[in-house]
Write a structure and sequence with these properties.
This protein is mainly α. It is built from 9 helices and no strands. Helix 1 runs parallel beside helix 4 (95-117) and helix 4 (95-117) packs across helix 9 (232-254).
């Protein structure tokens, strides 16, 4: 029963996250104006704004102008609901659940925004970086610690490692290829993730995300004949994986039996 409740509230939050995904890259307020059709600007009434259900009732179209509503809206709502229910199952009713939900929702927002626009807004990453540092002090269990100083230290080290590794890689790529090879949004994203993950796990994100991105990069380069892909989603997916299983991966790779 509680899993369903979490799914329901997660879908509601997913509806809000869709607003952020749409408005952050356009530098628009997420509070004003209210929800409206991006094509005809018609105000969306409450019964047309019920997460998941309204999309299917309206058959994916605006009630007034009949323009198509991107599937991203319902996908984010469903996925958000699933993540909320999964976090409750993993962590129960706890502060760890709240921090985990924040982290995963930011990664979801970053992923969808980067796919749509090729841009990762600072409004996602910079406040979340600060939140991750503060949360690590108040809840050092994020880094498997009991002392707030150790939690804070590991978070700050993760920020420096995440931002520094990708910044150095980007500068090297710029020198070798004579063009920008790593966006500033990716660097800030990895720094933000480092606040939640710490240095060892952020190193794993750095190592595994290119492997995850390689098939798509090859497809885009040799089939679509394009030069670049959004890298944020691959950082985000790997960052979610390492948040849940990074300790085990690190021990398997680097800790001798």
């Amino acid at each position: 029963m509680m899993g369903f409740v979490f799914f329901f509230f997660g879908a509601i939050f997913g509806s809000f996250l869709n607003v952020c995904i749409h408005r952050f890259p356009r530098d628009e307020s997420i509070l004003h104006p209210g929800s409206h059709c991006p094509q005809c600007s018609a105000k969306i009434r409450w019964f047309d704004n019920i997460p998941v259900l309204s999309y299917f009732v309206l058959r994916g179209k605006c009630r007034k102008c009949k323009s198509k509503i991107t599937r991203r809206y319902v996908m984010v709502e469903i996925f958000s609901g699933v993540v909320w229910a999964a976090c409750f199952k993993l962590f129960g009713l706890s502060a760890m659940t709240a921090v985990s939900l924040y982290y995963f929702m930011v990664l979801l927002g970053v992923t969808m925004t980067d796919i749509e626009t090729g841009y990762i807004p600072d409004k996602f990453t910079l406040p979340s970086l600060a939140f991750g540092i503060a949360a690590s002090a108040f809840l050092p269990e994020i880094h498997a610690q009991t002392d707030w100083i150790q939690g804070l230290f590991r978070s700050l080290l993760g920020v420096l490692a995440g931002g520094g590794i990708l910044l150095g890689t980007g500068l090297l790529g710029n020198f070798l290829f004579k063009k920008e090879s790593m966006g500033g949004g990716d660097i800030k994203l990895l720094a933000m993730m480092g606040a939640f993950l710490g240095a060892p796990k952020i190193l794993l994100v750095f190592l595994f995300s290119p492997i995850l991105a390689m098939p798509m990069a090859l497809y885009v380069r040799y089939i679509k004949h394009q030069e670049t892909i959004p890298y944020g989603p691959f950082l985000a997916i790997t960052g979610a994986w390492m948040y849940l299983y990074g300790d085990g991966v690190w021990n398997q790779l680097f800790v001798l039996p």
